[in-house]
Amino acid sequence: MEKEDEIQKTKFEGLVIINPKTYEDERGCFFESYNENEFKKQGLPINFVQDNQSISKKGVFRGFHLQKPPFAQGKFVRVIKGKVLDICIDLRKESQTYLQKFSIELNEKNKKELFVPKGFAHGFLALEDNTIFQYKCTDFYNKKAESGIRWDDPELNIDLQLEKYGLTKQDLMISEKDKKLPFLKDLDTENIISMVDKLEKLFQQTDKSLVEIMENQKLLSRILRESLSISDK
Fold first, then answer.
1. Which domains does the chain have, with CATH numbers?
2. pLDDT tens-digit profile of 147-195?
3. Please, are residues 74 and 88 in contact by the beta-carbon 8 Å criterion?
């Protein structure tokens, strides 16, 4: 039995669900977990430079993570084995869905995949032991640029749906590093990503004067200096 490939858009610009085409028979199943041509057709990034994989026990929460510009990452995520509740928070100040949350269950049976664009904080809760989570990134890991938000931020009031999955707060396993992530009110959410994107588009235009380009290069340099000088709290 063949299942057709399907791309589902969400209300969050750039955040899409991929249901890969699968071929199933008495032996099992086969599917393409990633196809560059299909991503191109959908206007999705294809410049993945790093693959990461984690193995988690049930109750492990990893997040919410992000990298600050100019090292912000888009992530293409999926579950190889087990099950997770995947959650994304839109931190793009110019977005119509700013500070809104998106969640989806990804598991080895539904084979759903998710592309998370730059400007989101991302995290997931493992719902089974030995859950294998894999993701492709559009930029390399950069220790100086890493940041995030506490999972229990009172302003965001994130629902991990613990009761639904037979878990309690006492069951949660969170790294000491993630426990020390800042609350939203302490996180610098200046819309640097949007500013950098605008400058990239500007430099691509050939009708700009030399003065305009030089002035915007100064602005870009300032943005990069400021983004790298903000220390994680």
1. 2-186 (2.60.120.10)
2. 999 999 999 999 999 999 999 999 999 999 999 999 999 987 544 455 5
3. no
Whole-prediction pTM = 0.81
Q: CB within 8 A of 196, min separation 6: which ones? A: 69, 70, 220, 223
Indicate the pairing of strand 146-148 with strand 83-90.
unpaired
CA-based R_g, the chain, Å: 19
Q: Using CB atoms within 10 A of its CB, is residue 184 exposed (0-12), middle (13-18) or buried (19+)?
A: middle
Q: Do residues 117 and 91 lie in contact, with contact meaning Cβ atoms separated by under 8 Å?
A: no
- Please confirm, yes or no, whether 135 is among the known catalytic residues: yes
| β-bridge mates for residue 115, sequence order | 16, 76
Choosing from 23, 34, 65, 141, the catalytic residue is 65
CA atoms within 13 A on the CB side of 142: 18
Query: Which member of 34, 98, 135, 141 is catalytic?
Result: 135
Burial class of residue 66 in the structure, from the number of CB atoms within 10 Å of its CB (0-12 exposed, 13-18 middle, 19+ buried): buried
* SS3 label, residue 228: helix
